[in-house]
UniProtKB/TrEMBL annotation:
Species name: Oryzomonas rubra
Annotated Gene Ontology cellular component terms: membrane
Name used for this protein in its record: Succinate dehydrogenase cytochrome b subunit
NCBIfam families: sdhC_b558_fam
Organism lineage string: Bacteria, Pseudomonadati, Thermodesulfobacteriota, Desulfuromonadia, Geobacterales
InterPro entries for the chain: Cytochrome_b-558, SQR/QFR_C/D
Length: 222
C-alpha cells in the first residue's frame, strides 16, 4: 500500500492504532472500577456480562491484537529510521523540547508489551500463581475474590503500579503526538495538547492504580 511506503503514512497508521488503544484503555478502566461496587453485582456482574458472548469477545481480542501488533511493528521501524536519520521521533517538531517520555517511547512501549503478556497470563489465562480461583454455583470464577487475592501480594501489586507509571509516560507523550501526526497541531495549540495529554494520562494512571493500592492497603477486602 502506498500509505505504508512512506514514514508519514506509517506514522498516521500508528496514530490511529494508538487512538484505538487509548479508547480501549479508557473503557477497560471503567470496567475495572466496577470492583468498587458502583454497579449492582460489582465486578462479578461486569465480568459475566462481558463474557456473555464468547465469539464477540474473541473477535474483539483478535482485532486489538492486530492493532497492537501494527502499532509496535511500525513503532520499531520508525524508531530505527529516526535514529538513523534525524533525531526527532514521532514527527515531534524541532522547536519542541525533548522530554524523558518522548525520548523513551520505544522502551515504554516494549515494557507495556511485556506487561500486556503478563496481564493476559494473569487474569485471562489464570496461570500466574497466588490467586484464589473460587467457583460459584454455576462454575464461574469469582472475579472479585480473584483480583483481591492477587493484589494482596506485594510483588503483583508492584508490577501493576510500575506498569501504570510506564503507561502514564507513554500516553503523556503519545496523546499529543497523535494531534501532531494528524496535522491538527500548531504552535499555538501544541501547549494545550501537551497539557491535555498529560492530564488524561494522569487520570488514567490514578484510576488504574486505585485498584491494586486499595486492595493492598486493605481498603478493599475479599
Amino acid at each position: 500500500m502506498q500509505l505504508l511506503s512512506s514514514s508519514i503514512g506509517r506514522k498516521i497508521v500508528m496514530a490511529i492504532t494508538g487512538l484505538l488503544m487509548i479508547l480501549f484503555v479508557v473503557v477497560h478502566l471503567i470496567g475495572n472500577t466496577t470492583i468498587f461496587g458502583w454497579i449492582s453485582g460489582g465486578i462479578n456482574a461486569y465480568a459475566h456480562h462481558l463474557h456473555a458472548f464468547p465469539p464477540l469477545v474473541w473477535a474483539f481480542r483478535a482485532f486489538m491484537l492486530a492493532a497492537v501488533s501494527i502499532h509496535i511493528w511500525y513503532g520499531i521501524q520508525l524508531t530505527i529510521e529516526n535514529r538513523g536519520g534525524r533525531p526527532q521521533p514521532y514527527a515531534v517538531k524541532a522547536t519542541q523540547k525533548a522530554t524523558f517520555a518522548s525520548e523513551n517511547m520505544i522502551w515504554t512501549g516494549l515494557l507495556l508489551l511485556c506487561f500486556i503478556i503478563y496481564h493476559l497470563l494473569h487474569f485471562t489465562m489464570k496461570v500466574v500463581p497466588g490467586m484464589a480461583l473460587v467457583p460459584d454455583a454455576e462454575g464461574a470464577i469469582n472475579v472479585f475474590t480473584m483480583v483481591v487475592s492477587s493484589f494482596q501480594n506485594f510483588f503483583v501489586a508492584f508490577i501493576y503500579v510500575a506498569a501504570m507509571v510506564t503507561l502514564f509516560l507513554h500516553l503523556s507523550h503519545g496523546i499529543q503526538s497523535f494531534f501532531q501526526t494528524m496535522g491538527w497541531s500548531t504552535d499555538r495549540t501544541l501547549p494545550v495538547y501537551v497539557k491535555a495529554g498529560t492530564l488524561v494520562a494522569l487520570v488514567l494512571f490514578l484510576g488504574y492504580v486505585a485498584v491494586p493500592l486499595s486492595i493492598f492497603a486493605g481498603i478493599l477486602k475479599g
